[in-house]
Amino acid sequence: MHDKVDEMVEVLIEEFLTARATRKPSPHTLAAYRRDLTTVAALVAADDGGTPLPLNRLPVTALSPRVMRAAFARFAAPRAAASVHRAWSTWNSFFTFLVAEGVVPGNPMPAVGRPRTPLPRPKPLRGEDTPEELLAAVARAEGRQRDPWPERDLAVLALALCAGLRLSELLALRVSSVAGRAGERRVDVAGKGGRPRTVPIEAGVDRVLAGYLDSRRFRFGARSVRPDGPLLVDRRGEPLRRGGLQYLVESCYRRAGIGDRVPRGARLHALRHTFATRLAEDGASAAEIMRLLGHASLASSQTYIEVTAGQQRAAVAANRTNRALSGLTTRS
Fold first, then answer.
1. Is residue 300 part of a domain?
2. What is the pLDDT of residues 266-299, one digit of tens each?
3. Could you tell me which of 172, 143, 147 has the C-alpha nearest to residue 248?
4. Which of 119, 134, 167, 225 is the most buried (most CB within 10 A)?
């Protein structure tokens, strides 16, 4: 055990945040850690109903399971479930750190209840024909572009819209990731969390990718399409990076004039969500969506089916005949 069992919580919070900083979290994330830790600690300090102790005088021994349960109950009352869940995770990490450092003998957080966080709602492109409008607009090179490369831009959109790839997965693709014989073409994806998967691609996507690689040979020579090279490159032939890919997709939206149909906070991800939503609309099961999108759990895939079912019910409810029928009464 650590020889300072009565260390003050304020000091330990700073030590934890210093240790976390080596993982290079964003300033926003570090600020959220600090806020969650100090806010709940202040509730612990006021637990006896008397004058709250300042955090620099609150000993770690005060953080018992009973006290933590009571503090989290008060913390949760005015807050959304997602905020409570995030704070619980922060405190769980904090106690895991304290146990590893020998400051406390165990982690009390398993005894503290936490709410389930609702799965995020899918955010596909709005408008039934929006994906087709986007592809058609990008396929046309515009004179306003300084160095138009519609073949490359179309390849990016096709992989996101027709294979459901994430941003990180797109960047990780190699030329050899597109494989298989005619009629059985596929993309081998290095998925999130180290979960590889294979996504079948149809002839249309295969033609778009072949056209892109032909245009790349023309621009940079045959050596530019070596099997072990990156599949997606910028206009200088260098591997496309995160910021460049995001800018490319934003540029495609602007050229197509569909910026108002892209959900906020889901710029490139809206293409993946559109792929999954259309799978659900066409009758794919949650298990099939899970395999194709590389979800870690079936629940994530099920949300697309639930949203689609809800949209179908809303469409039926909006039917004028249904509305007229609801206003009728019968007389015997």
1. yes
2. 889 999 999 989 988 888 888 888 899 888 777 7
3. 147
4. 134
